[in-house]
Amino acid sequence: MNVAGQFPPYEPRIENDSDSGTVSMLQIRDFLGRQWRLIALVTGLAIMVGAIYIAISPSKFTAQVDMVIDTKRANWTQTEMASENRPVEDASVDSEIETTKSERVASLVISRLHLIEDPEFIEAGSSLKRQIFSLLRLTKESEQLSKDQLMRRVLSTLKDNLGVVRLGRSYIEQISYTSLDRDKAASIANAFADAYIEDQLQAKFEATRRASAWLEQRIGELRQQASDAYRTVQDFKSENSIIIGVDGKLASEIELDQLGIALAKARADTSQAKAKLDRISRVMEQRTDKESLNIPDPVVTDALSNPVITRLRQQFLDDQNKESEWTARYGSDHQAARNLRGEMAALQRAIWDEISRIAESYKSELQIAKSQEEAIDKRMTEVFKNSAATRQSQVHLRELETAANSYRGIYETFLSRFTQSVQQQSFPSTEARVVTAASPPLSPSSPKIALTLALATLCGLGLGLMSAVAREQLNRRIHTRAEIEKLLGINCLAILPAFKQKKTRLRKLGAAQNSVAFRQISEVAPFSETAEALRYIKVAIDLHPTGGNVIGIVSALPGEGKTTLAASLAAFVAKSGARTLLIDADLRNPSMTRTLGYPNASGLLNMVAEKSQLDDLVITDSKFKFDFLPSSTKTKTLNSSDILNSTAVKDMLRAAKSDYDYVLVDLPPILPVVDVRAAAHLFDAFVLVVEWGGTSTDEILKAVKVSRVLSERLLGVVLNKADVAVMRRFEGYSDRRYSYYTNEAVMPEIV
After folding, report:
1. How far is CA 494 from CA 239, 511, 554, in A?
2. Can you give the pTM of this predicted structure?
């Protein structure tokens, strides 16, 4: 019967349950408290590795040079052959960067600085790898390599230490080189910039030279084609009697244009003359009134500007004013008034006569204009008829002239480009230039001590944390009350600390170990933590619901301390005055008999074999005041499970149950032998002893599941051989809990 419910299971005080998937700060603190040594060890090793790397790595210097790349390209398809500026895309900039790192540029640097003779390049590099190879005597002599192999090695070393990057989104690339010598690093970086510029000039020279050769051949062909086309045009003009004017027009076309202009002018003159004649004719129609002395008003340009008419009109107006004045003064019949009216009539007739003369001139002008218009129109018709055949030939002539002009234009363009290419071949140029030249660096760029140590520390912390987490996850041992209670669902009755033992030859013997541990436990102070643990086990037995007092002390594996616990618990209970019987039932290995010093005494095996009585075999320990039933240490039986399950043992336990207050039986380990499973029904309860940090959870579960009777009657678990200091880190308790216990001796009672 499982009586674990009599004692509430231990619940660790944490903010979050581990099953909830969250981790509290207390859990993290406890984890670091348990594993800080491992984390510190791994971190220290990582820092040590970093320090060794710094110590054995040679100092390297990095020099940098900033250079503007060439943004021009030779263009032979536009109207100008010269290099043109165009936007540079990222792909173009990347291409220039790769050009800077190309073998062609690197070869120029090697040739200029004679790097093939430099030991830094021909001796497999002066790096950490080379030093390690030198220590292991794995380096090869450079004399064994061919010239091509040496060149390959120098190129490889150059590329490994060369860096070319683009600065932002600009057209500036930064060339950096790392070397063991600061001056050499600067000279190689500058040499790469100069080699790139030289390579650009050489590339443009080669492109211009190839283009010039092709243009020269093409120009000869175009010259011949242009000459043939021009000759064909001239022959066609001669055959068809085509005359071209200054403006490129035919003679007939020019004459037609002139006749068209003259005809338009003649028609305009005719219209103007007819308009003048019509106007003056309407003025002449006003002369029918003979009695009127009104002055005529011919609104005609020639009449208005005629000086004769102007003078006559002025004289007429003066006489009219005088006549009006005299008539008003002397009357209309006065002689002077009649004379003035007669003079006015004469002036009027003179004006009309002058107007009639102008009208006759208009008639003559109209006739002349009509005659001229008719003549021009007639000539234009004749010329148009004669130029019809010429216009048909002109269509074909236009085609021939277009072809000739095209050939000539292409020829002139190629000739101009050929001239420019010859000039560029003589004076090649590039936009690439050095903005900031490299100078010898003042401090080494490698190894970076602060960065290396920082990375080593971070890596060490990371590896340490991962190792600690892995150690926690892979650790299947029991270290806390909560772990064993969660695993089995029963109480952890007590925790017994591990006792230090002297390093003697007897330590190798199990009996000696048990004897020393038994003496140390039995001699502990009554108010100590160990005494309180034993007291807790006694209370748990006393509170057994059925009142059972036959208790089996078991463990999953040998060496977990069940024998020591059984003897110590018996001594502790006997001190309280209780009648206690301690039985060594581990027939395979009767270590308790040897521990208590009765190796030759008759015991359990004799009781079964010889039918001896319990009283004859029990030994009363004079020191610890408990009765002890030993087991034979001289004879080992093969059927130990049958002996434990025999009638004699059953009767003995039944009798002991009534004669003793406590019957503590040291049973064999559960997993190695079958004895506990066979005799489990004989006991009222069991106390399972688990070695702290030694027995795995799998072994504990297997041991409990061996017998259903065992699992049901399991009173609790005792963690033995615990390292209290380490366990405190696992449980996260403060020292206040443990400070309650003391190692003071019991004061004698005052009577």
Report:
1. 135, 24, 15
2. 0.51
